Amino acid sequence: MTQAASFQADADTNSLSDAVAGSTDRARIACPSCDLLFDVTDLPDGATANCSRCGNFLTTNKSDAFERVTSACIAALVMLAVACAFPFMQFSRAGLENTMTLPQTVMELWNNNMPWLAIIVASFILIIPAVVTICMLVLSITLTRNHSPSWLRQLGSTVFHLQNWSMVEVFFVGVLVSLVKIAKMATIVLGTSFWAYAAFTVLFTLAVTNLDKFQSWQKIEALAAE
Q1: pTM of whole model > 0.90?
Q2: Which of 20, 90, 171, 215 has the fewest CB atoms within 10 Å, i.e. the most exposed one?
């Protein structure tokens, strides 16, 4: 948090009841770690607020955050489509070759009598990330256009809930670790899908980090009050 904003927040928390009873146009946020209440109404554009007591991240104010999310989501969906359509990687050893795609990975688990593992893998690395990306895209476009449909609150809840279940970066890090071990046993050729999914991981992470939860709900509530 900027120093000026930090001083204001500390002043507000000296009287918690007064802060809660104050005017509703003030932007207040409680630290998710220590519950200290902060006033971030005057947080400058581009500034990040952190708790002055425990240092926990609170919020980031970016005037073009929703436009950034929209751009990142569109690009991420394109990369995810490419990642599902082309070979992920190719293994070769002793004259034998095997080409794998992401959908084939799920199908192989299913065909090898591991249906629950196939469902979990498909959900965490393909289905949930795709759903979250689409929902973030719809949410960011809606907020950018200052629309307030009846389902906006539910969409916001869905986005921030499902984000915790997306394992995109975990899967990709796991793939990189596996490559180090497999490279000693076989020749590996990384396919178009591998690089597309790598790009999707970066774009998805950018979209999630730019969609600030506090700022999003501030905008949702403001639109609902109009």
Answers
A1: no
A2: 20
